UniProtKB/TrEMBL annotation:
The name this protein goes by in its record: FtsX-like permease family protein
GO cellular component entries: plasma membrane
Signal peptide as annotated in the record: none
Topological relation to the membrane, as annotated: Multi-pass membrane protein
The species this protein was found in: Paenibacillus macerans (Bacillus macerans)
Keyword Cell membrane among UniProt keywords: yes
Amino acid sequence: MLETIRVALSSLRGNLLRTVLTMLGIIIGIGAVIAIMAIGRGTTASITKEINGLGSNLLMIYPYIPYDEDNWMTMAQPKDFTLEDVKAMKKLPSVADVAPSAMSSAKVTWNRQVLNAQIEGTSGAFYRVKKQSLAYGRTFTSIEEDNRVNVAILGSDAAQTLFGQSSAKTIGETIQIKDIPFKVVGIMSPADAMRSYTNKQIYIPITTGMNMFGQMDIQEMNASAVTFDKIDQARAEIQQLLRSSHKLKPADQDDFQIMTQSEIMQMSTGVNDTMNLLLLGVAIISLIIGGVGIMNIMLVSVTERTREIGIRKAIGAQRSNILTQFLTESVFISLIGGIIGIFAGIGGAKLLEKFASMPIEFSYEPIIYSFTSSVLVGIVFGVYPALKASKLKPIDALRYE
């Protein structure tokens, strides 16, 4: 066996460039598998952590009508929510807090600094409901909301862009939103990766926003149940309230959707798993292409070494010896490519983590799977060339020119 391995390695070294080029498909395929699985596990862990951070008693409510393929031209449009919905929801016995969300965009200035920002009209409870935190200052008061006072809370990046810093020194400064002065009363702490877009947002009382922007529809409401045990009761109360508010008949479908933290988790995990499967499919195709490349190169090698095979058989080599040698060469090409691919995949994932801020998480399973896959690819795609070599007759092989 050691002699077979020595001969196989000697043969591979003799055609080093061809051997390396043959390995490329395996390297790319295995590297992609390692990187994809590391990113997939990291993303899943990150999403799970961040969704858990939303709080187990969170309810997210959206305008929504299921798509009807047969009647899409006559489908009703989902209704946006109103301030009356928000006020009524706050009075529900199982609901602790409600934070509406209405989005617009505007030019924001301070001195000569300019920022084109997303403006979110909401209530002072938004950061509690969404489990976010204020770094400096305070939130809106109910008096400010009722009287449409021009006060603003800045995301950490928005504060950095306008003031060159995100600190307590910016509290009390006056910014201009659509050339209207707003007093800065709070700065948000940096959000987690899943909600990093909120770092660039500016929050104002929703009543102020509706007054300033004219039409500012409430596209989303976030509510928190008084306790986790009351979440199903809170959902039922909100559903009954909105169906009544939207004047829906008993046979009508809801024109809104209520999602809990666990449902958001399932949806996010499902999307992530689907993407991982698609990318894994591409990696497997690359492995198959690499395997076909190994088979073709081994067939060329059999043709080039026909006389060598004939001489070995003439001096007593058995079919099994020839079969084992060519199969060993095939496995070595695939195995070495797989090992290089494992390190390439780990390195690629690390680079993506560093330069693209992608979450990664390694485990031993993908490495074991990749190592095993390399051996299997070498065996599966090396069998045919090895059998062809082993079946050559000594007399025909010695005549070959």
